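Bug report (template v2)

What were you trying to do?
Predict the complex of my protein with iron/sulfur cluster.

What happened?
Run completed; filing so the output is reviewed.

Input:
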Amino acid sequence: MAEHYDVIIIGTGAGGGTLAHTLAGSGKSILLVERGDYLPREMDNWDPRPVFVEGKYISEDTWFDREGKPFQPQVHYFVGGATKMYGAALYRLRPQDFGELKHVDGISPAWPLSYDDFEPWYTKAEQLYQVHGNGGEDPTEGHRSAPYPWPAVSHEDRIQQIADGLAKGGWKPFHAPCGIQLNEADRPGSTCIRCTWCDGYPCLVHAKSDAEVIAVRPVLGRDNITLLTRAEVTRLETDPSGRSVTGVVVTRDGDRTSYSADIVAVCAGAANSAKILLNSATEAHPRGLANGSDQVGRNYMFHNCKAVVALSKEPNDTVFQKTLGINDFYFATEDYEWPMGNIQMIGKSNAEAMRGEKPLLTKLSPEWALSDVARHAVDFWLTTEDLPQPDNRVTTDGDGNVHLAYTSTNDAEAERLYAELKKILNHSGMAEHHVLRKNFYMDMSIPLAGCAHQAGTCRFGTDPATSVLDVNCKAHELDNLYVVDTSFFPSIGAVNPALTAMANAIRVGEHIAQRLAP
Ligand SMILES: Cc1cc2nc3c(=O)[nH]c(=O)nc-3n(C[C@H](O)[C@H](O)[C@H](O)COP(=O)(O)OP(=O)(O)OC[C@H]3O[C@@H](n4cnc5c(N)ncnc54)[C@H](O)[C@@H]3O)c2cc1C
Ligand code: SF4
């Protein structure tokens, strides 16, 4: 007889970790099943060579592209999931992102819920994840029922100069919302030390608001919470009718065990959640669990992104750079009819990481050592929305491996955003300082393997013919199966996805708690 719980949660990242935190107080017995282990706390956490060059914390998974070519996806299997490595930029989607938006390559579809529906959950997620920000600065942001719980993280001098230059030119730079436990009013007492090893690194001192630190650890001492690490869910079993999940099959240290629960929540990340459902085909669900609509795995999105490095003669000695955002091009502008997206900063370049990312960088500035390039670099991250496409999809093969087919969309918008960034940098006091007497930019488009912002694959909606999940993120075709990670996104907007996954997990968690209440 399988060990039985009230709820089993598969995965402990932004979705699963937050869901566990939300449900912990219900007193219901909850089993968290996590494929990874705790991320080791070691000096390598803050060393670009192991993190970026050697990819120490990246999974050894092999996935396959549309042509069947193998690649190593940049996914991270730990308690806390991808949030262990994330940049903690915790944005809300814009209100318009919840509606239908026209793009150069097609339609970004409307969500079944509006921004107003989501707003209270965003507020709760911001409180839980201790988001720092300054409401009202960003003209594209929606209304908020409460201010950010923490003041915005201040700009350092070079970033302040850029912000001032942009504001002078008529743009509306804002302080980027950020989940780090930094108390600038009491630096000696602050958990966060404001270091440079944040975006893309694990936080050695556990000061980043990741799902392990904020959501999972605080509930682990409770009698009703059990966490199984190094435990991979390979399959879900159902009763003969196919309406209920009756078994969660887990492989751990080579052993195979089955657990059961009244409610099962799959929160393994967009690709892996689809993988679990697709690998759980039965007679009642021949195309994979909850897949009568043939939508499971489809509509995979991960943003059309560019990392851009702007070099100026003036050094950039910023330590924590991810403080500035620009949404002036988020939607159409007077002279461009399509939305372009969001501009934000990324972690400060350093020579080691640059070497790992693009050896060509050194060749582009032969007169400078890579350390000089890094010191003078100002680093931007450009995000354009990509569209849900049925053929951009996760499938699995006979061995259960992930195949990821993806063709980018809205490339013209992404290029335009890049052109706009170059223009505004010209106006922001950087042009006269540029090396090589002209603007000098290097961009790094993100390849298929960089699936940090993966979403879609099990979208929610009101029509079972075109969606996998209902509005509560319960599978249309099953009574006790939920998917609570970024899989539910019907569209992805052009801001980072984690806060939306967290807010949704609180929303769905409160729904499940109500459902289980006596
Ligand atoms: C380098 C990097 C930087 C990022 N920066 C930002 C940022 O600044 N802002 C932002 O909003 N987002 C950022 N993201 C994206 C963000 O981290 C993700 O959107 C978010 O974590 C997704 O949440 P999730 O619950 O869908 O998946 P995850 O957080 O990845 O959680 C999935 C969990 O499921 C586990 N799992 C997978 N398969 C199985 C299985 N079969 N059995 C058991 N467990 C399983 C995984 O180990 C993992 O713990 C970044 C991501 C990366 C990698
Ligand atoms: S900036 Fe703060 S939260 Fe980020 S890694 Fe450094 S100490 Fe951790």
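What did the reviewer find?
The chain has a mean pLDDT of 92. Residues 498-516 form the longest helix (19 residues).
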